[in-house]
Every structure is written in structure tokens, then in C-alpha cells.
Amino acid sequence: MPAIKPSSALIIEHGRADRHYWQDLWRYRELFQVLAWRDISVRYKQTVIGAAWAVIRPVLTMVVFTVVFGKLARLPSDGGAPYSLMVFAAMLPWSFFSTAVSDAANSVVGNANLISKVYFPRLIVPTSAVVVALIDFLIGLAILAVLMIWFQVSPGWSILLLPAFMVIAAAASLGAGLWVASLNVKYRDFRHITPFVIQLGLYISPVGFSSSLVPEQWRLLYSLNPMVGVIDGFRWSLLGSDRPLDLQGLAVGTLVAFLILWRGVTRFRATEKRFADLV
Amino acid sequence: MAAAITVEELSKCYLLGHRSKEVDAGTSFRDVIEGGARTLISRTADLIRGRQIVQGDEVEQFWALRDVSFELQFGEIIGIIGRNGAGKSTLLKILSRITEPDRGRAILRGRVASLLEVGTGFHPELTGRENIYLNGAILGMTRAEIKRKFDEIVDFAEVERFLDTPVKRYSSGMYVRLAFAVAAHLEPEILIVDEVLAVGDTEFQKKCLGKMSEVAGGGRTVLFVSHNLTAIEALCPRSLYLADGKVVADAASAKVIELYLKRGRELSNEIHSRSHPIDSGLHLERTKVQASQIHSGEALEFEFQFFANTSGRLRECAVLLYAERGVRVALADLREQEVVPYRFEAGRFHLRVKIASLPLVEGELMLGLHIATDERRSDLLDLAHVDILAPKLSEGFPKYAPEYRGYWVLDAAANIVEVSGENSVRIHQRT
Lengths: 279, 431
Fold this sequence. Notes:
Number of domains of chain A: 1
Structural class of chain B: alpha/beta
Helix content of chain B: 25-40%
Distance between the termini of chain A: 40 Å
Helix content of chain A: 55-70%
Number of strands of chain A: 1
Strand content of chain A: under 5%
Largest interface: A-B, 44 and 52 residues
Structural class of chain A: mainly alpha
CATH superfamily of the largest domain in chain B: P-loop containing nucleotide triphosphate hydrolases
Largest sheet of chain A: none
CATH class of the largest domain in chain B: Alpha Beta
Number of helices of chain B: 10
Oligomer: heterodimer
CATH topology of the largest domain in chain B: Rossmann fold
Number of strands of chain B: 19
Strand order of the largest sheet of chain B: 5-6-7-3-8-9
Number of domains of chain B: 3
Strand content of chain B: 25-35%
Shape of chain A: globular
């Protein structure tokens, strides 16, 4: 065998890992792909109906919300769209957000054996959890398309802005997921707190009802929840409601989403060095 | 030319929490509630202030590694020995970048691959084929590299027929073979290996050792941690002996091993109450041995105390008995007693084992535990030491030296020995 020439020198020192972090993240992109692929392929293995679960969950929630809020409480729908469609358009980003946050939050602890045995930028793990949630979201989007054909609702040009709202949702969920993930490693209390908070969020966010129900003077405060802007945006861009988009609220929500992302990343980066000692 | 690995005063400190006496003494229900409330308040305060939370209310610094320095030339192979908790794993973890040092630094020149466990990241639901790609990527191979070596890996592991079967249906032998096969085909310039040869059947172990020396002979720089001193001696010309986080000796393997064995004998039988993590929810809290020394042929009783945070399952469990050079003397597979698989609930549970008779040649015997839970498979070594003394009743003639007699005492009464010859007569010894 020919003599091996050293390709690079790696220096390990306290606080040194920071310097090549983003470069490392790029170098480990294949691992990122493989981990995301693993999570996707494992997700529905050994379930009888497989990926159909990604369809059943949002559809059932939609039915329940439509009956409770639309039929029993007789809340008004947004514009002319059927109530169930309005609920489903909100369920899409919401279930993406909730799955992404809770999976990302548990991802570091769930991959403890990986983290304590191999080096890679830890950011890969929660990010891949968010990507997996994105796959469920795409399945949901296909169902929505079917529903829209069924109800004969056609979107206008505004559908082109849908990816922008998705980016906001992704930023918020990745940020929150990273934040909780780093806390979860140290304090397992968050395993109990997260599902509870997400459950609350479902009712605080305008998923089962239209955000127009919120009184005008509270709207700006309400918009601090980034999912309000995202859900309104989804309804607006998909169902072409005649109600104009609340741009001020959207701006506030977007700002908050990216603040959460920034805080989540910095918090995660600050604590990830000790993950292997703590998990 | 600069060295392949330069380690300078590498140190790593952990914070350990203890519970002070006062809290422990709380006996009444009220005391317990009060103590609990106090802990809750102080922890919440710590949480808010962003301080690290540790169990108990007294904090102690523990140096897992302290001022470790050494240099390794290109192509050099070094063995690292030391008892459990000596800092071997911490050193490897720092060099593998899993955890950061608190002080000092290490410079590694070349592509590093570390193998702290075989089958890291293997997913039971995925097939053998999928796991090869997954594990390869985790160990740092590119997709193209894995594709190129795929057939070689499959050949080495001897699992062609089961490539598309989920690995949870593999036998443990097949699982380990596949896991090692992936790892064996890494082509790094610096290889960091921790105790991977401990598992698998003999034939495969031989194959692994062969592969290891092939890797070592290929001009690679290798750091090798093992409890198996024979393997260390065979593979590594030089060894590093760590104790309490410090380098005790760094010299030719034979010399270092001799020192290590001598030191080991000097350390008396302490109760091993160090907690060993088994998986994320299960710990081995302590190991108790009935007697620190027994006579050859007597029974040996011991007890393992586990603590589980959540319920779970012991899929496999075996007691490992090995001699001072890491040579396995015997294994008690608890599946045979139908003790395992064992389902446990959160809380404490005890495993008591009595081995009816240990007809061993006098010397030191070490206890270990091989455990497989649903989450992972691990070997806990150096849990307790037992001195085997010569049998109480000994026959009139002088025995050969213990090292000369091997490990096992044959039952003389049960052996049939005959001698015959034309003109020979047996000499009766006068007593």
C-alpha cells in the first residue's frame, strides 16, 4: 500500500469546533440526507396502512373541527370557502409545525447513541426531523388538492406565494424545535411540557376558526404568534378569500418567526458541545 | 515531519452531584416533601439563571482526563489500557470530537475515523442493505465509497442471503458481523478503535483481528483501546497506561502490561459502586460480590443492582468471567436459566447469580456483564475482582506454577489414567 499523505490537520481545542462549523455542516450533507431518509422510511414501517396515516390524521381532525366549530358553534367561514376546506388549509401548516417541533425536540435525545458515539454537526439531527415533517406536509397538500377539486374551489395567482408562507412556518418550527431540543437534553421535563404546549397552541392559533373572529384591538398582539400569519397566508393564497391579507400582522409574525430561528440556532450551538456528556 | 497525532496536556472535567447528608437523613414524610420542594426551587432558579443542573446539592469536580500528553508518528499503532473509569473512553471521545476538552489540545494530521462501537446507528427496522448505507454514512463514508465497497462488505459479513431482511431478525452474530464489516472497510489515515473485538464468534474474531492487523500494517496510525491485553500485545508495539485520567506509563507494550498487571494486583478488592450507564434509561448501580476471595472449586455468588428510569426489556444478559489478561474464562448465559428476556419497570431491580462451582487455577478473576436491551448492546467490564485461592485440601506433591497450569482445574478423581509397559513397575510413594 502506498504511503498515506496527510490531507489536513485537525486541531481539537476548547471552543475550537466553532470555527469550521458551517463548513462541516456542508461536508456532512450526505449524512443529513441519509438520516432524513432513515426517519422517513422507518416512520411507517410495521404500520398496517403505512403512509395512509399521514392522510388520516389531518382529515379526521378536519372533520372534528368542522363539526365542533362550524356546525355546533356555527362560527363563520372565511370568505366563500366551505368551512371544512378552511379548516384543512390551516391544518396543513399547523400539523407541519407541531410535528416538526415535537420531532425535532425529541430528536437529539432519541439519537443519543449516535451522538455519544460519532461526531457530526448536531444541527443535522433536528433539521432532518423538520424535513421529515415536510414530507407529511406534502402528502397533506395533495389531499387538499383533491378536496379543492371536490368542492370546486380554484386558487388564484396568490398560490404562488404559498412557498413564502411555508418558509416562515419552517423557520418558526426549526427555531422552536432547536430551542426545545437543546433544553430537552438537559432537562427531560420538556418531554412532558412540549406536547402540552403544542396542544394549547392548536387552540390559540386560528386553526379551527377564522382569525377574523379576533377583535381588531387585539389583532397585533395576536399576530405575535407566527403561526397566525402563516395560517392566514395559507387560507389567503389557497382559497382566494376576498378578505385582504393583514400585512402588518404578517410582518410581525415573520419577524417573530425569524427571531425564534435565530435564538434557537444560537441556543443550540451554545449547548451542543456538551450534548454527548449529557444525553 | 510532524507527528500524526500530537496531544498536549489534554484535560476534561465533569461536574458530579452528591446529595448532602442532611437531605438524606430526612425520614418523615414532611421532611421528604420539604427537601423535595427545596430542590425544586433551587433547580428552577438554576434553570432560570441558565446554570448547569446536577443531581444532589453538592457539586464536585471530577477530572476524567488530566494533562495527558503523547505523540504518535505516522503508521504507529498504540494500545491504550487502564481500568474502567481511567479516562480511556474520554480520551477517545475527545479525539473523535464527540466531546470537547476543557484544556489542552490535540492535533490530528489526516482523515480520522473513529469506531467507538460497532453498528452505531443501526436501525432494527431497516434491512441489511439499508443499514450498510446508513452506518457507512454515519462513519463518514461517502455514498460512492460505500457503493464501491458494497460487495466486499457483504462478502466479509457473510450475509448475502439476508440483505433484504430487517436486521432485527438477524441473529446477534450476523448483526455484529455486518456491523464490523462496514467499519472494517473504512479507509482513514487515523483510526480510533474502542473495544470492538469483544463480540462475535471465534472465527469472526480471528477475521477481525486479521483485518485489524492488515489495517495497522497498511501504514495507518491506529489508537486501540481494549481490555484484551493479549490482543493489545499482538497488535500494538507501544502502549499507554491510563489511571485516574493521567498517563502512568507510555512505553513498549510488554513493559506497560506488566506494570498494569502489577498495579491491578495491588489494588485491593473495593466495592464497585460506580454507576455504569447501559442505555439511556438503564444503569448498573453497583456490583456486590459475596466474597472477595474464594478457594478454587467453591461457589461464587454476586449481585447486580440496576436502576431503570423507564420500563424496558433485558433481551440478553450474560455474566462474563475473565482472567487478568482479558482472556475469557467462562460465560454464564442467563438465557439458559430462562431469566432473560426480562421485562423491568421503572425503579430498582436486582440480579443475583450463583455459580455452583468454579474449578479455576488460582489467580485473579474478573467479572463483567454483557447486556442487550432494546436500545443497545454493551459489555460492562471490570465490575469486580475475585481472588481465586488454591484449594483448601491440597495433595502432597508441589504444584506447577499457576501461569503454567492455565485456567481450569481438571477433576483428577474423574479422570482415568493408565500406564502400562513391559518391565515397568509403578513406584509407590511413601508418605
